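Reader question, answered in our methods column.
A reader sent in the components of a multi-part assembly and asked whether the whole thing could be modeled at once rather than chain by chain. We filled in our standard form and ran it. Here is what they sent:
COMPLEX SIZE: two components
ENTRIES:
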Amino acid sequence: MNLDQFLRQSSDSYPQQVAVIVQGRSITYRELGDAADGLANNLRRLSLGDGARVALLLENSIEYAIAYFGVLEAGLVVVPLDTSANGDTLRFILADCGVKALIAQSHFRRQLKVIFEADCGVEVLLCDSILDLGSPSLRALVFDQALQVEQFDVSEATPSSKAPDAISLCRFGKLHELAAIFYTSGSTGVPKGVMLSHLNLVSNTLATIEYLNLSRDDRTLVILPFYYIYGNSLLLTNVACGACLVIDNRFMYPETVLNTMEEQRCTGFSGVPSNFMILLGRSTLASRQFPHLRYFTQAGGAMAPETTKKLMEVFPDKEIYIMYGQTEAAPRVTYLPPPRLAEKLGSIGVPLAGISVAIMDEQQQELPVGKTGELVVSGDNVMMGYWCQPDEEQEVLRDGLLFTGDLGYKDENGFLFIVGRKKEIIKTGGNRVSAKEVEECLIANESILEACVVGVPDTLLGEAIKAVIVLKPGIELERKGILLHCRRSLADFKVPKIIEIVGALPKYKSGKINKQLLKEGSA
Amino acid sequence: MESDTERIRSEIRAFIVDSYLLGDESVKFADSDSFMSRGIIDSMGILELVAFLEQHFGITVIDDEMLPTNLDSVESLVGFIRGKSGC
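And here is the structure of the entire assembly that came back:
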C-alpha cells in the first residue's frame, strides 16, 4: 500500500463524507480525491521525472490536502516547508534537495521574493495568483481553489528531466520508495532533510490509528501545521480512516479555536505542551463541556506532569494520550495508554505496535530495567536517512536502528521515562532548535565576542532558549539590538527568549564552556 | 474623546513596534491590519499583549474576550479598550 492510497480508499468508501473543513469551506472525500487526481495529472504533464521533489509552501487548508496527495499520486516526493521560516532558509532547503516545483499560496510572497532572488533550481511555481518575482527562468502557473491549473498547454511543459540523485523508484517496489522529506534542525545548525518512505509513514499511520481507536466517526480539530511531522500525522491518520479534519489556524485566539471545537462537535484535539498551557491558563477550556470530545493527544516535547494532572482534573471523562516521537521515526514511537496515565505520570509510555525501543549504553549494549541509557528505536517507521548528509546519518542510523539522542530508562512494567538528551538540541514549543545555529547567528554580530546558547525549563514552552553573551571590549549593545539581529536571520521560534550579557563565560580547564552552569543560571 | 482615542492608538502602536518589531520602524502596518494575517503576533505574543493592556490601561481582559474582534488590530484594540475603560 502506498501513502496516496489512503485518500483513494476513503474517497471510494466514503465519497460523501466531509474530509476537511476550514472556516466555512469544506470538501468531501470524493471531491478531495478528484482534485488530487487532477493535480497529479497536471504534475505528470510537467514531466519532472520520477521521484522529483515538489515542495509545498501552504498554510493548513484544503489546498494543502489536495497538493500533498496529488504530489504523492503523481509518483513524486513531497517536501512540506515551514511557512514561518525565512526566505533564505527556504531557498537553502529547495536547493538542498533539488526541488523542481513549488506549490505556494501568494500570501507568502515576502518569502517567495527572497527565495527567487537567487537561483535555487526550482523550475515551476504553482501559485494561486500571478506574482512578479523577477525570475525570468521560472515557469509560473496559476491554480484555482481545487488546485487545477487552467489553460495548461502540454506543449509548454518542461522537457523530461530525470531527478539527478533521487532515490530510485524501481529499486525496492513503491512501498520502500521515498515519499516525503521533512526538514528539521540538525545539531550542526544546518537543516537536515529526513527521508521518509511510504512504508515509514503507512506503518506509523496504521499503528497510530489503532491505539487512538480512530474511525470515520471522528472529527479532529487541527491547530498544528501540516508541515510539522505531528501535524502530518494528523492529516494521514484522519484521511486514512475517513475521518473529518477541522482546521483552525487561529490558535493565537484560543477562544476562537474552542468555539470551533464546540460548533464542529470535534472528537479529538492534538497539541504540544504550550497549547495545553495556554488553554488551561488563559481560556475558558475548563468551564466548557465539549460533550462530543473523546480524546486529547500531546506530543512535541515533555509536558510538565502538573499540566497533565490539571488536564486530567478538568476532563476526568476524556482520554488523554501522552506520546513521544521524532521526525526520524515518522514520527510516533510510544504512547501512554490513558488507563495507565495516573499510575505512570511522567512516562512516555510503551512502544506502538511493530516498534521496539531498547535502552542502550555507549557500547550499544542493551541495559537492564531501571538503568539509564539512550533510547534506540527499531521498526518499519525508522527513516531511510538524511538527504545527502551521510555523516549526520551515520551518527543516528546504524544497522537499521535509530539512535534518538534521548536518554531514559525502562521500568519493571516496560514503561519508558526520559531523563535528558545527549545532543545539544533545544525543544521549545514543539520545535527543535540547534543551540549551535543560534550561537553561530549571535557570533556573526560584530559586537559579540562569545555566545553560548542553552535550553532552560519554561512552563509555557517546555524549554526556552537562553543566550549568554560576552560583548567585545568597549562595546555597548542592548538586548533589543541582539534580538533584532537574531530576528533578521532566524525563524521566530529560534530567537532567544532570555538574553544575559556577562563579563565572561564559565569554562572548564579544557576551555570548554560549562553549559550546565549556564542552564542553572549561575553565569 | 478624540484625544483619548489618539492617545490609546499611539500607545498601542508604540507597544507593538517596540515589543514585536523590536523598534524596526521600516515594517509598516495599518491600524486595520490583522496581527494574525500579517504574522506580527503569535500565540505567545498575544499573552504579552493582554498583560500589557491590563497593566497599562488598568482593564481586565477575561478569557472569553480574547477574540480577534477585540484584539487583532490596532483599530479593534482601541475600540475594545475604550469600551472597557469607558473613556
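What stands out: Chain B touches chain A at residues 22-24, 35-37, 39, 41-47, 50, 63-68, 71-72 (CB under 8 Å). Helices of chain B lie at 2-19, 35-38, 43-57, 68-71, 74-85.
Send us your own complexes using the same form.
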